[in-house]
Amino acid sequence: MLLLTELLKDWPCTVSGGEIRASVMGITENSLRVKKGFVFVARKGGRHDGTLYMQQAIERGAVAIVIDRTDLAALPTDIPIVIVPDCRLFIAHASAQLAGYPARRMKVIAVTGTNGKTTVTHFIGQLLKYFGNRPAVIGTTGIFIDGIKMDDDSPQMTTLPAEYLHPLLRKCEEEGVTHVVLEASSLGLAAHRLAHCEIDIGILLNIGTDHYEEHGGKLAYMHAKKRLGQMVDAMIVNKEDEQCVQMVEDLTIPVVYFGMDSSVGVHVLDLEKKFLIPGRYNYLNALAAIHALVLLGYQLDDIVQYCHLLELPEGRLQQLERDDVRVYIDYAHTPDALQAVLCTLSNSCYGKLITVFGCGGERDKGKRAEMGELAVLYSANVIVTSDNPRNEDPLAIITDILAGFGGDCSAVEVMLDRKYAIRKAVFSAAPGDIVLIAGKGHEKTQHMADGLVPFSDYEEAKRALFEKTFLDFN
Fold this sequence. Notes:
Blueprint: E1 2-3, H1 4-8, E2 14-16, E3 23-24, E4 26-28, E5 38-41, H2 54-59, E6 64-67, E7 81-83, H3 87-99, E8 107-112, H4 117-130, E9 135-139, E10 142-145, E11 148-149, H5 162-174, E12 179-183, H6 186-190, E13 199-204, H7 212-215, H8 218-226, E14 232-238, H9 242-247, E15 255-258, H10 271-274, H11 280-295, H12 300-304, E16 318-322, E17 325-330, H13 335-348, E18 353-357, H14 366-378, E19 381-384, H15 394-402, E20 412-414, H16 418-428, E21 434-438, E22 445-448, E23 451-454, H17 457-473
Parallel strand pairs: 4-5, 5-6, 6-7, 8-12, 8-13, 9-12, 13-14, 14-15, 17-21, 18-19, 18-21, 19-20
Antiparallel strand pairs: 1-3, 2-7, 9-10, 10-11, 16-17, 22-23
Helix pairs in contact: 3-5, 4-11, 13-14, 14-15, 16-17
């Protein structure tokens, strides 16, 4: 708890009305989360304007309203109205202060990049645990402490908003966590969700095609990623990605590069023999994680001894096998990620490679045709289906995908229902074949126009494999 005056001290703002010495118990930009003693941040978002919910926040116990506009009329007069330059930066500052700045007392590593964030954060968490630390991993697949997933009411987002992140970090500190490894998405960085969170090491993995439309173009997307370099004490960068190298050229902090070339960063002798996970991209992910441990002060020879124990997180090349039919569930939802997985699987497949995939709605449309072209290039058969269409017409999304190969290809089939697309692929597989189900990975829901519905690629594939065996036996 802090007084409002303490929260506003040294922060640029103007205040009018109400009792400025009110006790503050929390801060939020969601009026439904307001409790007695909370500050309500009435920010204008992409879809909703927080000022429309000021009265609701007051009725629920708000002790102050924060805005970043001066042209509003009919503001409440019986409660402090705080005008700040940027609501997003203020909520990050206030959340950190109310939580007692827990990030300052733990080692924090943030990983950004179009692909591989989840895998790298989990690799780092696993390595830290092997050295006797108590790490927390926060990202797309949830919140893990010591490798065990926590039950938490935080939203399912790659990078948590500050009002959730800092209380969570405080909880981690109370649980004895020594290191926090988190995913830093482009959207999270652009929205200042990690502002006022002290970060020791940043990792830049790659720049691919994703979220361009949400940022307003590729340059804006890259600018968002670049922000991480301005927030950390040291950077680890993929030397094999020229765009990544260019993005850190003007940094004044230490920059360490990683890559397959033995002249880059630390050279890991015999790592390929010790690293058991397939895929060149996963090898690079392991190198990024190793470099993080080296920067934290661990000896390379000691780190490499644990590399054979590394495991991929849920939904990343997650394998099911029955009667010599292998099914892989993977989160690949960008052209680069899909190509990397397809290339890896095609090299290990002695039968047919059958791919099931779609593209998310209300996301970068430019990648759809490219992903369709890649799927046909590497696969014997492709079933194009729904992913998370959200409020977009699923058939329109599929039409965009089909444009990647002219819309007329005998190897391609369209099956709108994802459940039946998975069943068709599994049932059509013969011994030696591989089925790749790409795009949703670990997700347990499908985002439709009517909202979220329960759906798991893994469970549907598991069920289909079992039923296939039963039918074949009979």
